[in-house]
């Protein structure tokens, strides 16, 4: 009886130990499991790295395909990784190669028979992401060993087929761009996607962007881009699509640039260290049909030219211009965006047929919260702009709807200016000719709270160049608090903006934030 109880106890202990083991021990540890990790069967053991690999300095047998006369490595058979959704999985280790004389040249001289060894069910280990991407079949998954177990991958990766790049094991794989080259260039067939999950990119070159999307759809999740000194962290060309989720960009220059592209940004943090001069804007024709135009340099968080899609839950700290936006045909929506300490929070420019919508956003401690250029069709609603050094919102004759916003603390809460006064002096290098003229309707400013302005809650001024210009629009139903300045300054409203049913309070609004 005792023997039976002892045997049963040992069996139960084994079951308990097995049940308590974390099946995701070898999977990426993000806020939520990566897509690549979720496709693995949690009850299948993840293969361990072969301890004979030369990065440990131990004995390494000569791999198949090694040629004495060339003294270089192609690839070798490694652990068999489980396939994902019926597609192959390749492993990349950027650590020390098989032979001490290995020169690291991974892009030249492919030997015959290289792809003959790579057949269905045969998993291989590569020492270069670029090599693995070249050898992989479409829709394959490439798992990269992170520093600590492996090393940082110092290379410029070129992807021209649909793939998934993810981290193998815990931590985060790192790709560092060589000087003067991008971290990654994606030229994917239209309709296909490159998925990047849980990888850190590092760039230190001003000549090229860190990630260039030339064509196709790139999706990046749970990742980080450190592009200090780089041209752009992301540069998305025409026909390109970029989806960024749960990711962070650290830069001292510029974040994301997209021209006639589709963008979907959700829960992205962009930190811009310091202010490295003004933003230099040369947009060409503002209808975005001039392919030679569209050059923007300087400290810009998001530059979305004639692009469509959405930006949601994104935080931007710093920048000369937090967001530069002009809409594509289907419109561009900025929702729950938070901008802190930019020079200009949001600059809205004329684009194509769509509208730029700014809603439920916050702009804090900017020089100018939002500037709306002539012809920029836009809606600004439910947004809080506080502690601006100059203005909360400035419109230049644009047909914009500005409704249900809170603007607290500025020299002028809202300025309604003539279209001829654009661009303002802070954009001395702005070149966008011709600016599309406004439709003559002017802005509609209604139901806003405008408080604690030093000079005027609302200033209506049609002067420019020594002349009075046409100015139109509506100002109605707003609540204005002006303790020392004017509620509405319309001394130069000769071609009158209709002013109706606004409430003026001659005291200070108690703002708790």
Can you describe this structure?
The chain is mainly β and 513 residues long. The chain has three domains: 26-147 and 160-172, no CATH class; 177-184 and 193-271 and 290-366, no CATH class; 376-513, no CATH class. It contains three helices and 41 strands. It has a 37-stranded mixed beta sheet that branches. A hairpin with a 2-residue loop joins strand 35 (463-464) and strand 36. The longest helix has 19 residues, at 2-20. It is elongated. Mean pLDDT is 79; it is low at 10-80 and 98-123.
Integer count of domains: 3
Low-confidence stretches: 10-80, 98-123
Beta fraction: 35-45%
Structural class: mainly beta
Largest sheet: 37 strands, mixed
Number of helices: 3
Q: Using only CA atoms, what is the Rg? A: 28 Å
What general form does the structure show? Answer: elongated
What's the β-strand tally?
41
Overall average pLDDT = 79
Comma- or semicolon-separated keywords:
3 domains, 513 residues, 41% strand, two-stranded antiparallel sheet, 37-stranded mixed β-sheet, elongated, mainly beta, 3 helices
What's this, in brief?
The chain is mainly beta. The chain has three helices and 41 strands. It has three domains: 26-147 and 160-172, no CATH class; 177-184 and 193-271 and 290-366, no CATH class; 376-513, no CATH class.
Secondary structure elements and pairings:
Blueprint: H1 2-20, H2 35-39, E1 76-77, E2 89-92, E3 124-126, H3 129-135, E4 140-144, E5 153-154, E6 157-159, E7 163-167, E8 173-176, E9 184-187, E10 193-197, E11 199-202, E12 211-221, E13 224-226, E14 234-236, E15 240-251, E16 256-259, E17 262-272, E18 280-282, E19 295-297, E20 300-312, E21 315-317, E22 321-335, E23 338-340, E24 344-348, E25 356-359, E26 362-364, E27 368-372, E28 378-381, E29 384-386, E30 391-396, E31 400-403, E32 406-417, E33 444-446, E34 449-461, E35 463-464, E36 467-468, E37 474-476, E38 479-481, E39 486-492, E40 498-500, E41 503-505
Parallel strand pairs: 2-3, 2-4, 4-7, 5-8, 6-9, 7-10, 8-11, 9-12, 10-12, 11-13, 12-14, 12-15, 13-15, 14-16, 15-17, 16-20, 17-20, 17-21, 20-22, 21-23, 22-24, 22-25, 23-26, 24-27, 25-28, 26-29, 27-30, 28-31, 29-32, 30-32, 31-33, 32-34, 33-37, 34-38, 34-39, 37-40, 38-41
Antiparallel strand pairs: 1-3, 18-19, 35-36
């Amino acid at each position: 009886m005792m023997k039976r109880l002892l045997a049963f106890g040992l069996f139960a202990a084994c079951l308990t130990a097995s049940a308590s083991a974390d099946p995701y021990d070898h999977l990426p540890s993000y806020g939520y499991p990566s897509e690549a990790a979720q496709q693995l069967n949690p009850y299948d053991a993840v293969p361990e790295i072969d301890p004979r690999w030369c990065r440990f300095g131990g004995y390494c047998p000569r791999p198949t395909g090694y040629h004495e006369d060339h003294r270089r490595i192609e690839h070798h058979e490694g652990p068999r990784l489980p396939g994902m959704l019926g597609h192959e999985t390749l492993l990349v280790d950027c650590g020390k190669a098989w032979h001490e004389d290995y020169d690291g040249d991974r892009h030249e001289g492919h030997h015959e028979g290289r792809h003959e060894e790579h057949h269905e069910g045969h998993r291989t280990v590569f020492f270069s992401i670029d090599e693995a991407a070249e050898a992989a079949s479409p829709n394959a998954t490439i798992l990269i060993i992170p520093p600590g177990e492996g090393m940082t991958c110092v290379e410029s990766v070129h992807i021209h087929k649909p793939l998934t790049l993810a981290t193998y094991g815990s931590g985060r794989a790192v790709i560092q761009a060589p000087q003067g080259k991008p971290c990654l260039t994606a030229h994917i067939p239209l309709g296909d996607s490159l998925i990047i999950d849980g990888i850190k990119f590092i760039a230190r070159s001003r000549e090229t962007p860190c990630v260039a999307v030339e064509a196709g759809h790139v999706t990046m999740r749970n990742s980080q881009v450190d592009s200090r000194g780089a041209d752009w962290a992301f540069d998305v060309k025409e026909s390109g699509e970029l989806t960024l989720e749960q990711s962070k960009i650290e830069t001292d220059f510029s974040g994301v640039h997209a021209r006639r592209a589709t963008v979907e940004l959700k829960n992205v943090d962009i930190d811009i260290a310091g202010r490295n001069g003004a933003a230099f804007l040369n947009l060409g024709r503002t209808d975005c049909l001039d392919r030679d135009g569209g050059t923007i340099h300087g400290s810009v968080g998001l530059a979305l030219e004639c692009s469509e899609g959405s930006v949601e839950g994104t935080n931007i700290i710093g920048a000369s211009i937090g967001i530069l936006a002009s809409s594509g045909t289907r419109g561009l929506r900025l929702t729950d965006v938070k901008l802190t300490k930019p020079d200009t929070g949001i600059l809205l420019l004329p684009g194509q047929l769509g509208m730029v919508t700014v809603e439920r956003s916050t702009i804090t401690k900017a020089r100018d919260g939002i500037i709306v250029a002539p012809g920029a069709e836009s809606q600004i609603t439910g947004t809080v702009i506080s502690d601006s050094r100059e203005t909360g919102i400035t419109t230049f004759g644009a047909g914009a709807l500005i409704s249900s916003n809170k603007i607290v603390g500025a020299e002028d809460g809202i300025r309604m200016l003539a279209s001829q006064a654009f661009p303002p002096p802070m954009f001395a290098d702005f070149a966008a000719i011709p600016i599309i003229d406004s439709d003559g309707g002017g802005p509609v400013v209604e139901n806003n709270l405008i408080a604690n302005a030093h000079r005027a809650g609302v200033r209506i001024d049609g002067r420019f160049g020594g002349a009075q210009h046409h100015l139109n629009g509506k100002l109605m139903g707003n609540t204005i608090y002006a303790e020392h300045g004017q509620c509405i300054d319309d001394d130069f409203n000769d071609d009158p903006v209709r002013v109706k049913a606004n409430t003026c309070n001659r005291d200070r609004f108690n703002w708790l934030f």
